[in-house]
Amino acid sequence: MSKKESEEGWRGILGVLANIVTILGFPFAVLGVIATVLGVIFAFPQFRASLSAKPQSSVTPSVVPAVESGLEPTLLLDEDFEDGVAEDMDFQFGNWSIVQDQDDAKNHVLEVAAGAQTPDAVFGSPNWRDYRVEYRFKYSHECGGIFLEFRRSCDPACDYYVQYIEPSDGDAGLSVVQDDGEWVNYGHKYIETEAGEWIWVGVEVLGDQISIFINGSEEFRQSPRMFNSGSLVLSTFPGCRAQFDDIRVTSLSD
Ligand SMILES: [Ca+2]
Ligand SMILES: [Ca+2]
User: Fold this and answer.
1) From the CA of 86, which ligand is nearest?
2) Pair (88, 28) in one structural domain
3) How far is CA 208 from the centre of its chain?
4) pLDDT tens digits, 79-137
5) Residues with Cβ within 5 Å of ion ligand 1?
């Protein structure tokens, strides 16, 4: 074999080896690129967090817009009655029970039967100062009034604000009560409601300002400057059968 033939032989062998390396190397090169991309992605904690984050609900049940306080609200009470227990409520008067919603078999509600007394469902702390209360209610056709007492303190007679709706004459508003006495009105207006339909109510009390929302719109904004803190009571006029649901209280102060 001449030197030239020997060189051509080696060139041929090197060419074949180069082709083998190219063929074998291509998949490894692709894998290398994929590994590099994954490495870069997982090096960023935010990206990893976004992969593991639970999808957020697109439904926000709140009926009250966030108060312009700049404070982060803290949930103080959240009761939908689906577990059949109202853990943080105290029923002092009236005939209360948790029942199936007659219009929605999957929902449970707090019902108060028509009775001779003014029923009381008490919740919250005397120390609660600035908060937002939300609830919804519906009533049977005969109902004189549904109301929420708030910033209520008793020593032993009670002082409190009252947000009320009187379906019989469409009157709705805010009152002040001292020493369990007469309701002194601080603003009211005509609001029509229908028996058997859910009515959403939101009350925000922040400093001296009280705002009342009904079915999503702000109906009242008043500053009686009477009471600084206190608990809550849901109630009706005697003889009224009503259901309550989705009671939620969020703190609006530190
Ligand atoms: Ca419920
Ligand atoms: Ca419960």
Assistant:
1) 2
2) no
3) 24
4) 999 999 999 999 999 999 999 999 999 999 999 999 999 999 999 999 999 999 999 99
5) 80-81, 107-108, 245
Report yes or no on 68 lying in a domain.
Answer: no
Q: pTM (2 decimals)?
A: 0.73
Residue 186 CA to ligand 2 center (angstroms) comes to 34
Residue of 31 and 62 predicted with greater confidence: 31
Residues 15 and 79 in one domain: no
- Number of independent structural domains in the chain: 2
Within a domain: 102: yes
Instruction: With respect to residue 183, please indicate whether it lies within any of the assigned structural domains.
Output: yes
Check: CB of residue 241 under 8 Å from CB of residue 140: yes
Q: What ligand is nearest to the CA atom of residue 247?
A: 1
Tell me the CA–centroid distance for residue 64 and ligand 1, in Å: 18
Token digits of residue 138: 């519906």
Please, which residues have CB within 8 angstroms of residue 183's CB and are 6 or more apart in sequence?
162, 164, 175, 176, 177
**183 and 176 in contact (C-beta within 8 Å)?**
yes
In terms of residue numbers, what domain contains 12? 3-52
Whether 42 shows a pLDDT value over 70: the answer reads: no
Q: Which ligand is nearest to the CA of 245?
A: 1
> Please, which residues have CB less than 5 A from ligand 2, an ion?
83, 85
In this structure, the answer to whether residues 27 and 139 fall within a common structural domain is no
